[in-house]
Amino acid sequence: MSDCGCDKAKKDIEEYLHNELQADDAADIREHLANCDDCQSEVHVGIVLTEVVQRACKETAPEQLRVQVLAQLRSIQATHTY
Description:
Blueprint: H1 6-11, H2 13-17, H3 23-33, H4 37-58, H5 63-79
């Protein structure tokens, strides 16, 4: 393993956070993060953002809003020509 450097670490942070990298690439990024405060900050931002999005996706819209959105979509679909 070798320190991949900031450019590569920052480029691949999203994939790293979602466990989408090959094992060797993930290990290189982990090694880099152990010694780079700047990239650690980037990872922290990515983690917080992911958590916020996950929480938001679990919430449901109020029923009246859902009805309005569905009605608008149906209206658009009815007038849209394919």
